């Protein structure tokens, strides 16, 4: 079956970070899980003055966070529960990696490979040039850097110079990642897990994984952690849907009223990357 143009485009391009708009608007998907209903109603929550601008942003949110028919209610529930916090931004960053393959490539092959001292802005432009023939490398560079900075993955100690921020995630974001990445109850080798492109893209230090896995075991999301001969592995405790319900219990009833009112109007965004 031929892909729709919008699907093809999102595999080869990335622009418009929309981090704050996602945090403000996506909880509405709990009440309106249909993509068409969400698109119609989220326009009223967005802060832009122009109706056409709000409608365009609503379209971007649907394109990124739905399958065309149903919105991503796991993401909506997580943002509704955790608000504008590091947990929500960590989870939103992960979902952006899933939704936008070019952004995942930037994060796993460029961001995760940066030297400790950092690199100039031109370094990312050089990375993107062979991947974006005929596209605006400058625009993708700016929006990618802004997104990573607003999600806490990048710092800019001086103008047009960028360093990756490697840090362990909040345990809630780690549990969300496990539920989404492993929908079945399965056994996972830790060395294979640590080398997954998405784990690398998240900038989680490998040395922190043991502690995170033990926390996940205490939370009931992992049933067993074992070392067998040379293999270090863990076993998920239940199916991903069940583990997601453990993480986000009763979220729909608790957040329906908030979703109507609009969330976090006073939140501050980091400035765009230079």
If you had to describe this structure to a student in words, what would you say it looks like?
The chain is globular and about 60 Å long. Helix 6 packs antiparallel against helix 7, helix 7 runs parallel beside helix 11 (171-181) and helix 9 (121-128) packs across helix 10. It has a three-stranded antiparallel sheet. Strands 4-6-5 form a three-stranded antiparallel sheet. The longest helix has 15 residues, at 51-65. The chain is built from 16 helices and six strands. It has three domains: 5-83, no CATH class; 98-164; 171-247, Orthogonal Bundle (Arc Repressor Mutant, subunit A). It is 54% helix and 10% strand. Mean pLDDT is 88; it is low at 1-11 and 252-272. The chain is mainly alpha-helical.
Summarize the structure.
The protein is mainly alpha-helical.
Q: What descriptors fit this protein?
A:
3 domains, Arc Repressor Mutant, subunit A, 16 helices, 3-stranded antiparallel β-sheet, mainly alpha, single chain, globular, 274 residues, 10% strand, disordered N terminus, disordered C terminus
- Total domains, how many? 3
By DSSP, the count of extended strands is 6
If strands are numbered along the chain, what order do they take across the biggest sheet?
Answer: 1-3-2
Share of helix among residues? 40-55%
Succession of helices and strands: HHHHHHHHEHHEEHEHHHEEHH
- Main beta-sheet annotation: 3 strands, antiparallel
Number of H/I helices: 16
Unreliable residue runs: 1-11, 252-272
Mean of all residue-level pLDDT scores: 88
Straight-line distance between termini: 40 Å
**Which of globular, elongated, flat, extended, rod-shaped describes the shape?**
globular
Instruction: Note the beta-strand portion.
Output: 5-15%
**Structural class designation:** mainly alpha
Backbone CA Rg = 19 Å
